[in-house]
Design goal:
Blueprint: H1 2-8, H2 15-37, E1 42-44, H3 56-62, E2 69-70, H4 76-87, E3 107-112, E4 116-121, E5 126-132, H5 136-140, E6 151-158, H6 167-192, E7 195-196, H7 204-210, E8 217-228
Antiparallel strand pairs: 1-5, 2-8, 3-4, 3-6, 4-5, 6-8, 7-8
The protein binds flavin mononucleotide.
């Protein structure tokens, strides 16, 4: 191969120079591939489409747990609207689509993509990179099939936002607040023709360490979300 390098680079005087050029030529595509594959640090989210045709009574009628997902990604608008419906800011004073105890806004949404995990920043609105790699299997836990969903939303309560309230209240409020966000996700999914299921099955400790969560941040629930898997044609 080194001999070939001399053929391609005849002006190279030494073996070492030719070797260096050969390495650069061979490695360049690998480096470019790595750069192209690196997950974005920030993914801006589109403003929510508030004109989606989504009658509430129809969404309630259609809401159900669906556990079989098409792995195709959600569109950018679907993801933006999903996150806004789940826990977006819906008033100028920063309050959210989901109510929280004492308006402590303790629920953060982590968005687990096939290549990385992001934190939902509702005020930007945007997704902020927190970890690389596919954490969906950690959220799926024993129900490995749901790791097929293009995104899994992880609902994490930050108990520190409750201040020095009694521990019993923190536990209760966090669970209730997560339930409100969960129901928003369920109803948006039903209205948008998407599949989801609220799940407490997850490898919580491994998620905590992969996402570098503080001890006061508790992963409570997760929602795989995607288009429903199409039934095979007969
Ligand atoms: C707090 C909570 C935890 C749940 N955990 C799981 C779970 O770990 N795995 C799962 O497949 N479904 C889970 N579910 C979904 C329930 O099994 C489902 O809501 C129930 O069977 C009723 O079905 P439906 O949602 O279609 O009405 C959970 C639901 C709730 C509210």
């Amino acid at each position: 191969m080194l001999a070939n390098a001399f053929v391609f680079f005849p002006k190279m005087k030494t073996r070492n120079s030719a070797l260096r050029v050969l390495c650069a030529v061979l490695c360049a595509p690998l480096c470019l591939t790595a750069l192209a594959a690196a997950p974005a640090e920030t993914i801006p989210l589109a403003p929510p489409d508030l004109n989606r045709p989504a009658p509430l009574m129809r969404a309630l009628a259609d809401r159900r747990s669906i556990r079989d997902f098409d792995p195709a990604p959600l569109s950018k608008q679907e993801l933006s609207d999903l996150l806004w419906a789940a826990n977006g800011i819906n008033r100028p004073d920063g309050r959210r689509t989901a109510p929280t105890a004492r308006n402590k806004q303790d629920i953060d949404l982590y968005v687990l993509h096939p290549d990385a995990a992001y934190l939902h920043d509702a005020s930007a609105p945007a997704l902020k990179l927190v970890a690389t790699g596919d954490l969906r299997p950690l959220a799926a836990g024993a129900q490995s099939a749901v790791a097929n969903a293009p995104v899994i939303l992880l609902l994490v309560s930050d108990f520190e936002r409750f201040g020095n309230s009694p521990e019993f209240n923190k536990q209760r409020w966090a669970a209730l607040d997560a339930g409100n966000v969960s129901q928003n996700i369920c109803l948006f999914a039903a209205a948008a023709g998407l599949a989801t299921v609220p799940r407490t099955t997850q490898l919580a400790d491994r998620l905590k360490s992969a996402l570098k969560l503080r001890p006061a941040q508790q992963p409570l629930l997760n929602h795989p979300v995607g288009h429903p898997k199409k039934a095979p044609a007969n």
